[in-house]
């Protein structure tokens, strides 16, 4: 009996649902099932619990389930006795905890993840949340989102149990704006003809609840004014009532399909700190669109309750079609499709849906996509779930997510110390890449994969050229497969605990493998715009661990060398012997027919330079004096120095081959060889029109040099032809002018954190540049490449971009672009009013300081007091008033009041010596 009981509970435990525990796990029900007395069953159950075979929950009623079956099916439990289900749930591992209501939105962890973060930021704002504006084309899900927001508020007790939810669509009142205003704000008796009694409006109805104003741009001037009063002061006035204001406490959400630049919206959005932009259907990736199609089909199945067999072609066409009315129109197209099929096959057990049931417009719009990747047929019936459909669809994506989870769990279990789990993480990453590279269907040569690989290969080459490194050959494939298989999905989890883990791990990886981390970051940045990728921290972590393992090697920049000779095999046999002797493939050979012209040879060589990396120079050994002149046929804009040597023989080739490997400049190589054998040679440097370039460098490594070059690139006017190259400091310092870049480019100067002292190339420290002490130097270097006006803009952009990252790091809810624009205005006004010029260093400080200040004020965070304000005011009242005046735009736009203590701090920033944090430290 005891055995049978245990085995029965074991089988049932697999179906256990912690959220709705079945009666079946109680002594009472089990006694009924086994037809014995309840006491007998209780006795056995307790025995089994003592033996640690069953878990007991001492709630009312008491539940028992099978420990091992539970551990296997769900998660590992530490004990066999618990007081409540809640206690058990607390042991649930991080990644299996419940999803919140927003997970009902398709795309909640992909294209909508940022939107949901913003919604939560608005909702959890202290003292009743912040208003938010939701923008997006028709049918992108604005109303749907707000309905969920309301449910979410109820679930999280942000509003009371019976709190109201009021929706007003302003577009419905297009012909009667007064009616709209009265419906929103209410009116008092006599406010207009027909107003026979006082009446509440939507604002009052939504008090203590949620108010949703759709198509808000339709409000007329009066309505707008009333709305602004509410946003600024939290009160409304009914129509016809000017004296009495009614305080309203409602969580307000607005939506509009209108362009934000329109005149009403610009004044309006200044008062609405959070703007949430929903992507159009086409901006969502294919996986997400397919998920939407699945969910709508599933909903139709649930309505008609007849299995639906949908062909892959239908799924493909629905997924790829573009709809003006976005998700809303996709949803109704699915409805029409199912209705067409259903009415035709009313009597069939299964309704088969083929392309003939689709609305015609879809067929017309999607012709082009018929040949592309086609889905498999899907049967929707009582066993179908959305989760299973989407899971089946992307085993690789799932595999990537599983690795993410394992890595984070491992890291967490090792007390968040990378050094304790480095090996385990590497093994996990290796396993993931093995799976992605070798266990996925390689036959299916997906166009996207081919495109990805091609682009990533080019990016690697670009990286190799600028950093003088060489990546392991497999890295290109590994990276392409990874990005392809993980799909367009991005993984930005919401759980703060997981985000904390990711943040910690990313920081530690960056510290432990700085070079790999920087290369990965740079490669991803370069790929991002072309490949339409959303990069997450986990991508950087995984790829940095992988690249670290594959490791990259430093390329010794040796020039390419070729031998050109007349005759059937002259060149190739010399190259052959020399390469064998040198034990390395140094030379390539060009065997030429006897009647070839020098011009044809030149063309061959140019063709070679186009297909090979000759950025370290090219050495050409030729067999006839006349051929030495071939360079005349090279176009003027060759970009690499070329040495041409005459009378090639095997000893000459061997001697040159040896010199080539010594990491010397071309000139030094020739000089050395010439000491051994008399030589006839010519060196051709790129002539005129060399492209102008700046070099950035940093003592701490190429990562920072790249950041500096980024900063400069971003700040350059778009028309400027200047190139910027990040460089290893040590390399510049060791090789000096011999570094190839100086012969290939016209290097105007070096900007960085340490001077490599290169003769003839001026140096400017980043700190001097940012502080403005020496920014005129940069202007002088750039005289030839840009006009004075452009130069000025460059300097301003530089300071702005330099500050941007810090502002991004410092503010959480403000729109960074907007707040920076506001600070720009503040500084401009201040310069005018106080007749001062704010230097670069102070600009940087003000960008950050004022942005944080606004955020603190909006968030009602405590503001520091300023000691000695009175004394300061006595002697500096004029300047303090001027600063106050310059703040008026910010005060108006953000509806905040800048306290006197803050004005005093700004005074300090402007007129006291700045805290000497240097630009280098900031980097
Ligand atoms: N993320 C989503 N996941 C699942 N269904 C969605 C999602 N977004 C929108 N929908 C569905 O799409 C339909 C259209 O959405 P909704 O009416 O909210 O769009 P809207 O932006 O308010 O449109 P309009 O501006 O035309 O009023 C809704 O029926 C909703 O069920």
Please tell me about this protein's structure.
It comes from Tetragenococcus solitarius. Residues 558-691 form the PTS EIIA type-4 domain. This protein has 923 residues and is an alpha/beta fold. The chain folds into seven domains: 2-92, Winged helix-like DNA-binding domain superfamily/Winged helix DNA-binding domain (Arc Repressor Mutant, subunit A), CATH 1.10.10.10; 101-279, P-loop containing nucleotide triphosphate hydrolases (Rossmann fold), CATH 3.40.50; 285-393, Helicase, Ruva Protein, domain 3, CATH 1.10.8; 395-554, no CATH class; 560-684, 3-Layer(aba) Sandwich (Rossmann fold), CATH 3.40.50; 692-791, Rossmann fold (3-Layer(aba) Sandwich); 811-922, PTS-regulatory domain, PRD (Orthogonal Bundle), CATH 1.10.1790. 52% of the residues lie in helices and 11% in strands. The protein contains 39 helices and 24 strands. It has a five-stranded parallel sheet. β1 (54-57) and β2 form a beta hairpin. α35 runs antiparallel to α38. The chain is globular, with a radius of gyration of 35 Å. The N and C termini lie far apart (73 Å). The model is unreliable at 367-373 and 914-923 (pLDDT under 50). Bound molecules: adenosine-5'-triphosphate. The site of adenosine-5'-triphosphate (ATP) has 16 residues, from α7 and α14. Adenosine-5'-triphosphate binds at residues 105-107, 136, 138-144, 257, 295, 327-328, 331.
Name given to the CATH homologous superfamily of the largest domain: P-loop containing nucleotide triphosphate hydrolases
Provide a count of the helices: 39
The CATH architecture category of the largest domain equals 3-Layer(aba) Sandwich
Number of domains: 7
Tell me the quaternary state.
Answer: single chain
For the largest sheet, list the strands in their spatial order: 5-6-9-4-10
Average per-residue pLDDT, rounded, comes to: 83
